[in-house]
Amino acid sequence: MANIREVAKRAGVSVATVSRVLNNSDLVSEETRERVLKAIKELNYHPNLLGRNLRRLKTKMVLALMPNVSNPFYARVVKGIEDVAHKNGYNVMLCNTDSDPEREKAYLDLLKNKLADGVILMASVMGKDELTLLAKNYPVVQCCEYIEGAGASYVSIDNFSAAYKAVKHLINLGLRRIALITCKNDFISTRQRETGYRKALEDANIEFDENLIKYGDYSFKSGMRAARQLLSLEEKPTAIFAISDIMAIGAIKALKEEGFKVPEDVAVVGFDDISFASMYDPALTTVSQPKYDLGCIAMEVLLKHIEGELEDPQRIFLEHELVIRESTVKY
User: Fold this and answer.
1) What is the pLDDT of residues 63-100, one digit of tens each?
2) Which among 279, 277, 282 has a CA at the least distance from the CA of 321?
3) Where do the domains of the chain lie, and which CATH numbers do they carry?
4) What is the pLDDT of residues 10-23, one digit of tens each?
């Protein structure tokens, strides 16, 4: 049986144009309408009327699921989501999952029960196959974090190259004993940032030392704990790369309390460029993510899925920037 994508290809138009013809939209020219209707007849295409009718019953509500609503990183992402949503007549329900599969499932039941039109997932804990099935039946976009190989759209950055650039900056300063403060989870950003860290060391012929990897949980206190563990080593690090700004700031706090100067004794780099990264003393060198744009574009892609304008999953990577401040270079 022919599908809408085959009709669009035969008529030489977009899927959205075929959808407009089926819905008797005035935005289609008569010549284009005739071409689409001819393709429909030639392919014997029969639209799913039940599905179309259900899609028209919109709630004008979308879900935004995040692992920790108190994490300041998500503030600008959510602002982008909300700005685009409100501009298009939608409201956003913020859902804190705490990375709990059961809580995530409970929120997704709102989507499945047609109490929301779509969902933006900022750090889903579901499996690849489960996410693929969800995205096949409902409008879904992953934002920031994404699951590799899943058949769902995502908007993110290249975490590998961002981490590589951050560590390369430390190496270029002549620092070689570079520690990593990371997290124990399955997020792709965590894996890619560690891989970028290791690759930068490898390319500089710096031997990897597993003693220089310590773990936190994205919190300020965990950054302090990890830094103190590093300072207890006989051969202390000369630099620390943390995969989040909050942990990096916690590390600086611990370093200062132990009498170490930043960056003279230990240089520190974070990741995210949250609002108070530039306000801390010393101001934090960090990888800046386009947080607001991540939210905006994720919502724009979700709206296209809701309207049936996208058939295939979208893979979108936005730019990142290493912002050099006083935690690595003394001005």
Assistant:
1) 999 999 888 999 999 999 999 999 999 999 999 999 99
2) 277
3) 4-54 (1.10.260.40), 60-157+291-318 (3.40.50.2300), 159-289 (3.40.50.2300)
4) 999 998 898 888 87
